[in-house]
Write a structure and sequence with these properties.
Layout: H1 5-8, H2 17-30, H3 40-56, H4 59-75, H5 94-102, E1 133-134, E2 138-144, H6 146-151, E3 153-164, E4 171-182, E5 191-194, E6 204-205, E7 209-215, E8 221-224, E9 227-235, H7 236-241, E10 243-248, E11 254-259, E12 268-271, E13 288-295, H8 302-312, H9 314-337
Parallel strand pairs: 1-6, 2-7, 9-13
Antiparallel strand pairs: 3-4, 5-7, 8-9, 10-11, 12-13
Helix pairs in contact: 2-3, 3-5
Length: about 350
């Protein structure tokens, strides 16, 4: 039989979120190792209550546990035709759950009967009071298309964060929308910081949430600095005789670019001011760099080869014709002698 998380917190299945928090708070304080040193039974209860709270305080885990029990929770269950839920594994550290709930390792520091513990800064006692530390920044990728960076846009990012309840001891999860105004020309690696939007705790300063700009892969372009790189396929014949190529832009235009030079391997054409906006002055832009991918024919018949030889190796063709003429003359002389 699987674990009974409701029994571990001494609550019923009809318990609400506030009931779950209150039950965990009571049990965690009663069986905390600080109050019960070297007591194995208390240590076990402390750990069981932490795991039970970790499951029941999370709506998704609670829903899976209520329907499928511990086995379904820890093995994963189907959520639709193609996907399963992630298997749940307890972190194994009840002190981590306790710390996240209370915001510190020693909730007894506020009580006079535990004043002897207050001198320990490691346990959030008097020596550490008034010295709240901020949690490390939380970084998230902000994936942007080249069009979004080219034109600028508004992005709304939904986060879920732990906030302190009015009682100052318990907390709950709430969703919040963060609005990011994407400026034209933002480069990959640009960091946008929302101060103290991380999880709240009674004895800590919420972490900053930092979004880091990343480029989404683009089907046509890639960017290098403020320049856009475009690859144009071109048949070998047109690479030799010239052509006009039609190059799209991020703002929907099409540029007609005449190519009069012979396109060799490594040949590029630069179109000024058709790249990405410059972050320091969005009215100015980088360049559009056109690279060429020369397509060679897969097959040539003898006539094709002869034609190319005449066009590209005229001297070799003349020597071949001269050699043939000499052979004809020699054959005629031999015939005359006979």
């Amino acid at each position: 039989m699987g674990k009974d998380y409701y029994n571990a917190l001494q609550i019923t299945r009809s318990a609400k979120d506030a009931d779950i928090k209150q039950a965990y708070r009571k049990i965690a304080l009663n069986f905390h190792p600080i109050k019960n040193p070297s007591d194995k039974h208390a240590a076990d209860k402390f750990r069981e209550s932490a795991e039970a709270y970790d499951v029941l305080s999370n709506p998704k885990r609670k829903a899976i546990y209520d329907q499928f029990g511990e086995e379904g929770l820890k093995s994963g269950v189907p959520v639709d035709k193609n996907n399963w839920s992630d298997p749940y594994t307890f972190c194994g550290d009840p002190h981590k759950i306790f710390h996240e709930f209370f915001g510190g390792d020693n909730p007894f520091a506020d009580f006079n009967q535990h004043a002897e513990l207050d001198k320990s800064e490691n346990f959030g006692g008097l020596a550490g009071r008034g010295r709240k530390k901020q949690d490390p920044p939380i970084e998230r990728d902000l994936m942007l298309s080249l069009e979004e960076v080219y034109h600028g846009c508004i992005k709304k990012m939904k986060i879920s964060r732990r906030v302190m309840n009015d009682d100052g001891h318990t907390s709950s999860f709430k969703e919040k929308i963060l609005t990011i105004t994407v400026k034209r020309g933002w480069k990959p690696g640009t960091r946008i910081t929302f101060e103290q939007e991380g999880d709240q705790g009674p004895n800590s300063i919420p972490a900053d949430i930092v979004f880091v700009v990343r480029d989404k892969p683009h089907p046509i372009f890639r960017r290098e600095g403020a320049n856009l790189i475009y690859t144009q396929k071109i048949p070998l014949a047109l690479a030799l005789i010239g052509t006009t190529i039609h190059v799209p832009t991020l703002d929907g235009r099409v540029l007609d670019i005449p190519i009069t030079d012979i396109v060799k391997p490594g040949f590029t054409r630069s179109i000024p001011s058709e790249g990405m906006p410059l972050i320091e002055d969005p009215n100015k832009k980088g360049d559009l760099i056109i690279e060429f991918d020369i397509e060679f024919p897969q097959y040539l018949n003898s006539d094709n080869k002869d034609f190319i030889k005449r066009a590209l190796i005229p001297n070799a063709y003349k020597k071949e014709e001269k050699s043939k003429k000499q052979n004809v003359q020699l054959k005629s002389l031999n015939s005359f002698e006979d």
